[in-house]
C-alpha cells in the first residue's frame, strides 16, 4: 500500500529550523523583508531614504526624521520577547498535526504558560485573518458540528448547553480529492446563519452537497447549487462516502481538541478552528508554512493582550 505523501513528508527538522531561524538577526531580517518587500518605506511620509539607529533597532526616515520599529504595526508590536521565540512558536504551531497546548508550548519555549497562551493566540489570530476572505469553489461537502459536550443534567443533542456550533466545509476536486477546508463558528443551525456563512465563505460557483438538515438549503442565498442527501443518523451516516472528507476533517479536529486541549472557551473557538484550517490548507508543504506565517504575521495589525483575552472572536 502506497504511503500517504502528505502524512510522510519530511517537513522541517529542528536542526534545519535552527540553521534558518536560530538567531535574532535572522528572525529580524525575515520580519523586515516581509514588512517592506521593496525596501523601507516611511509610514508617515512614504520616504525611502533612511538611516538605522542600531542601538535601538530603529529605522529613521531621512525626510521627516520619523523613527520606526520593524515590528510596529505588526502582530509582534510591543513584544518584550525575542523574535526567535516567536519564530520557534511558529515552528511548533505549524509542524504539529494535532496542535500544541499552551502548557506544552511554554515548556518548549522556556516561558510561562500565560506567555505561551498569548503567543499562540496572537499567531492563531494571524491565521484567522489570513484566510478570512478566501472562498471555497467547485464541489463542496458541508456538515454541522459542535465543540463541547453535555453538561450534567442538561439537554442532550442539538442546542445542549455548553456546545459551540460550527460549520465544516471541504472543497474537493472533480475526482473527489480534498483541496481546502473552511471552519466557521455559527450562532446556530438556522437559515440565516447558514446564509451568512455561505455569503462570506462560498463562491457562487460552488456545488454544495449536504445532509438533510434544512438550514443548508440557504447556501442558495449565495448563488450556490445545492444537493441534499439524507444520511440518517448514527455511525453509519458518518461513513457515507459522499461526505468522506468533511467527516475525516471533523474526526481529526475533534480528536486533536480532546487529546491536546481537553476543552476550549466558546469565545476563542474561531481561533482554534482557524489553526486547524490553516494547517490543512497548506498541508502539502510543511516547511513553507514557517516563512508564510512569519510573512502574514508581519502584515497583521497588533492585537493587544487585553483584547485577545477578553474580546469575543467573530468567525
UniProtKB/TrEMBL annotation:
Protein name (database record): IS1595 family transposase
Pfam families: DDE_Tnp_IS1595 (PF12762), Zn_ribbon_IS1595 (PF12760)
Superkingdom of origin organism: Bacteria
InterPro entries: Tnp_ISXO2-like, Transposase_Zn_ribbon
Domain ISXO2-like transposase per the UniProt entry, residue ranges: 135-281
